Amino acid sequence: MKKIEIIVLVLIAAAIAVLVSFMGNLTTYETVASAKEKEGKAVKLVVSLVPNTIEYDAVKNPNYLTFMAKDTLNNTIKVIYHDAKPTDMEKSTRIVLNGKIQNNQFECKSILLKCPSKYKNEEAASKQVATGA
Question: Helices (H), strands (E): how many in the chain?
């Protein structure tokens, strides 16, 4: 084999190895029920907060937050997050949770809040334009 062919084969093998390693770290959006079937595997849940279920005491333990979350199919699960409570969590309409199910609870690694407040003015303006008001 020529030197260039060997280099190309090595580059292809390296590219395949990189792709395979990335595929192992991919997470998918799941419902609570489908996440429970994948216990111990990393998943993303898109949920809403069940009102009045947040348990957080910044004085006692600032790195422990629990709450109940509900998916679009109304399945609920207890969420445990070992970090500080995100600001304005109660105002959020949707929450994206990254983590895994363990012992019928969701062990959360990160929380992303989806807050509609910054889009309210844009929605109202687009509705006015659409209706001609």
Answer: 3, 7
Structural domain span for residue 60: 23-120
Is the Cα dihedral 28, 32, 35, 37 positive or negative? negative
Given a contact cutoff of 8 angstroms between Cβ atoms, the answer to whether 43 and 69 are in contact is no
pLDDT tens by residue, the chain, 133 residues? 789 999 999 999 999 988 887 776 666 788 999 999 988 888 999 999 999 999 999 899 999 999 999 999 999 999 999 999 998 888 888 999 999 999 999 999 999 998 765 555 555 555 555 555 5
**CATH code at position 113:** 2.40.50.140
Return d(Cα 102, Cα 79) in angstroms, integer.
10
CA distances from 24 to 16, 18, 99 (A): 13, 10, 15
pTM: 0.68
Q: Of the candidates 32, 51, 33, which has an alpha carbon nearest to the alpha carbon of residue 97?
A: 32
